[in-house]
Amino acid sequence: CVPGPNKLAGSVDQDGSVAGFWLGIWQGIITPVTFVISLFSDDVHIYEVHNSGGWYNAGFLLGVSIIFGGSGGGAARKRRRRRRRD
């Protein structure tokens, strides 16, 4: 059901760097654009496999939630609207 371990986590890429928390946020933010490009190009992927592990994952998820509004603001607005009706 769940993906297996990333054997490349913690290893450097061809530039000698490992993607960390901040790059994870950025790559999470640009995921919608990157996804569309990845459909037409084999050289573009939406997730960096040469990453720092949990911190990159946390940054990536935070970036994705920033773009798709995962802050819970929608639930708060719904609650406020419901209170106004009562």
UniProtKB/TrEMBL annotation:
Sequence intervals crossing the membrane: 21-41, 53-76
Record's keyword terms, sorted: Membrane, Transmembrane, Transmembrane helix
Name the record gives this protein: Uncharacterized protein
Lineage, broadest ranks: unclassified sequences, metagenomes, ecological metagenomes
